[in-house]
Amino acid sequence: MQTLLQSNWLRFAPAAVAGAGLVALAAWLARGPGTALTLRLPGADQRPTIAAAAGSNPVLAGKLTRGPGQAANLPGAWAGFRGSARTGASTETVLLARTWAAGGPRELWGVDLGEGYAGPAVLNGRVYLFDYDQKQKLDTLRCLSLADGQEIWRFAYPVSVKRNHGMSRTTPAVTDKYVVGIGPKCHVVCLDATSGELKWGLDLVRDFGATVPPWYAGQCPLIDGDRVILAPGGPDALLLAVDLATGKPVWKTPNPNDWKMTHASIAVAEFAGKRQYVYPASLGVVGVSAADGALLWDTPDWKISIATVPSPLVLENGRIFLSGGYNAGALMLQLAEDGGKIVPKTVFRLDADTFGATQQTPIFHAGHIFGVRPDGRFTCLDLDGKVVWTTEPGTNFGLGSFLLAGDLFYVLNDNGKLTLIAASPDRCQVLAQAQVLKGRESWGPMALAGGRLLARDLTRLVCLDVAAH
Questions:
Q1: The CATH number of the domain covering residues in 57-465
Q2: 0.85 exceeded by the pTM?
Q3: What is the DSSP string of 206-274?
Q4: What is the pLDDT of residue 166?
Q5: Where are the domains of the chain?
Q6: CA proximity to 283, closest of 265, 256, 251, 320
Q7: In 58-133, where does DSSP find H-type helix?
């Protein structure tokens, strides 16, 4: 009997419990809530939706912070990537020292940086440098005093960037009124060059369909007159011109072949009475009209499967020298007119053992091409691609940068040793050497302004006195 009762209880217990629950719920509803309830509608809590968050431009959320530094009353300019003329050469007439004391050029000041290879630009006693604050996760465009390195201001906006051979690696472009920079994830920022106040910002990925290169953006902005020239490599904007004052698009170059952005920067050329921009995209090289962005010519003859880093070297009489790493070697293009059109023709190729340039763009000087080839030796080529001279076997400048001033080359190696080489096509003459940095990966482009050389390694920038005294 007890077993039967237990069995019946087990059968009816769930129903009894459910019934009691319904009674309790009815009693609670009869009492009403203790406080008024409001129906929760989507967006009522004012949280940004996923779509809104994806459409936001972090540059517009940037913050300007002022520092104690003051613009220096010092001469000299290096107004962007490869200098004010974008040739890798200084046009100043400051007399420079041809030998150094045992300790090398005197260090005037130095500042610590976030990891990267971004180069400095100099104008009106100010040094402009793109940096990354790894702790706060901020892209940061910094303005320093050329006199002592103290920070005048910084403009920072939130972007999460993971370390991948450093973060920042582009050089700003600056005029008397504006400074423009490109961040690792293709954000473009334009600030007042004096005050640091934001003028406009673009997100090349969101706005123009750019694809961030594998090791982040290496393209440096080009200011040409009242326009900024960029290469998003987007579906309908292979190249892009925007108004310098407003950031509004002026023209876009079609991209029917879907060529993507590389790490290279845009070069300026004049041919057949037309000003044009030359850009090595992911699957070929293009020439674009500076007037309206029209495609003037293209060729698939030059492409690098891993990373295109050096910019085109524009030579005389319509010649363009292209070089790269990863066993790409080098190639010489010749532009020609044919039926009113510009046609690029390959003149010669060089294998990597003869010449290539993994990271730094070669320099044209005295009718010759100078650069560091893959074995690390500084090399002089004639315009037929023949090696005239190289530095001694065993010398290895690695991926370090170099620039030209008058008849002097300043060449930095990976570990921060600076070498002074006579800029002569006749022979290789090393004039002086000094260890000016003590870090590693001294790959960022150098700058020279008023006898002051700015050089960096992975985490530090120094200003050196290289003037003759």
A1: 2.130.10.10
A2: yes
A3: HHH-----TT---PPPEEETTEEEE---BTTBSSEEEETTT--EEEE---TT-PPP-S---EEEEETTE
A4: 85
A5: 57-465
A6: 256
A7: none
